[in-house]
Amino acid sequence: MIADPAVFDDEHLPRRLLHREAAVDYLSRAWEPALDGDQAHDVLIHGPSGVGKTSLARFTLQKLTTHADIYSAHVESLGKTTAGVVRSVLHDLPGSDPATNTPREDLCIELRERVDQPTIVILDEADDLPATDILDRLADVEGLSIVAICHDHEQWLSQLDNQLRRRLLLKELALDRFGVNELADILEARARRGLPSGVVTREQLETIADEVAGVARKGIQSLRQASLLAEERDHSEIGADDVADSYERAQRYILEQNLGSLPFHHQLLYELIRVGGGLKAGELHDRYEAVADDVYRGRGLTPISERSRRLKLSKLEDYELIEVEGKNRHREYIPSYACVKTSIEVNQII
Fold first, then answer.
1. Does any domain span residue 36?
2. Which of 9, 135, 275, 279 lies at a C-alpha separation of 20 to 30 Å from 145?
3. Which 8-state DSSP code applies to residue 5?
4. Could you report the average pLDDT of every consecutive run of 10 residues in the chain (350 residues)?
């Protein structure tokens, strides 16, 4: 039934970013100095998971690059070191692809030398970056502007020291969930391009938009799963039962994708919580320390501190992989969907 599967991919960029016109204009104005060869503003884009933060940045940058001669880079920064981020930026810039063993200081020097015109770097999943020195390093590069994408802007900003705040030409842009009719419009546009004509009704699209509470990614994936269910059931059109059964399949798909995109530290913490059926904070840290020597052996990684673990747990919550109840010492971490697993074996170790 799906005529064009790419339309339902997370990476797909539509021809128009419906109901984000004001956000596109705001971001375009922040980057307007690059049109004259000057340095653009830095931008912090924040909001809940699945509302289109990355799509907004990519769409607007694509639009800008058709009118200006600028460099750009898109970095999946979660779990990356300073050297890893700089190496990824250099990889996206023309004429540079440093070796994986290039020292950090040499990478930073090369970046300063390579940027000779306005450059915009999208730092996706940038929640942990203030805990590194990468933002200082990028601020050292004349002509380079960052777009940091995160969930909790207050936590992100609280980790910046005053000197770095002054160095960043920072503008903020908050994205929220769509209204039911707005998301139904977005789903309708996807359906026109990705499905045969007439297989889904506007009412069904509004039902999906309402059920997912205006979260675009959940709505798009629910429509995709409803289409797949209709095909599996040999329906000529998407039925009410296909829509009703699509949400759980879409949620599982999204959680599996989210979990798979996370670095090892996050996955280990998640797996301990999942296997434990939910753990209090103290229990989780005790189990982490009990298994750390075994599970980290041979991975080229080292166990992380309790403070770093808390940051990783916040990301698991942002991704709706876990739920958190209580506060401080009484905090308890509960798996949202226990059948979503990692490949890490902790049963025999615990």
1. yes
2. 9
3. G
4. 94 94 97 92 96 97 88 93 95 86 94 94 93 93 96 92 87 97 98 96 98 97 98 96 97 96 96 96 95 93 93 93 90 94 79
Length reported for the chain: 350
One domain, residues 230 and 184? yes
Nearest to 85 by CA among 104, 101, 99: 104
What is the pTM assigned to this prediction?
0.92
| Strands 170-174, 71-76: pairing kind | unpaired
State whether residue 96 is helix, strand or coil. Answer: coil
Asked if 24 and 144 sit in the same domain, the reply is yes
Q: 70 and 62 in contact (C-beta within 8 Å)? A: no
| Helix, strand, coil shares, percent, the chain, to 5 | 55, 10, 35
Q: Quick one: 155 and 226 in the same domain? A: no
Identify the domain boundary among 206, 229, 259: 259
Residue type (1 letter), 327 = K
| End-of-domain residue from the set 259, 284, 309 | 259
Tokens 């229990």 belong to which residue? 283
H runs (alpha helix) in the chain: 21-31, 53-65, 82-92, 104-114, 134-139, 153-158, 162-167, 180-194, 202-211, 216-232, 240-261, 264-276, 281-296, 306-318
Number of domains in the chain: 3
**Is the residue at 61 inside a domain?**
yes
Round the CA-based radius of gyration of the chain to a whole number and report it.
22
Q: Tell me, yes or no, whether 244 and 300 share the same domain.
A: no
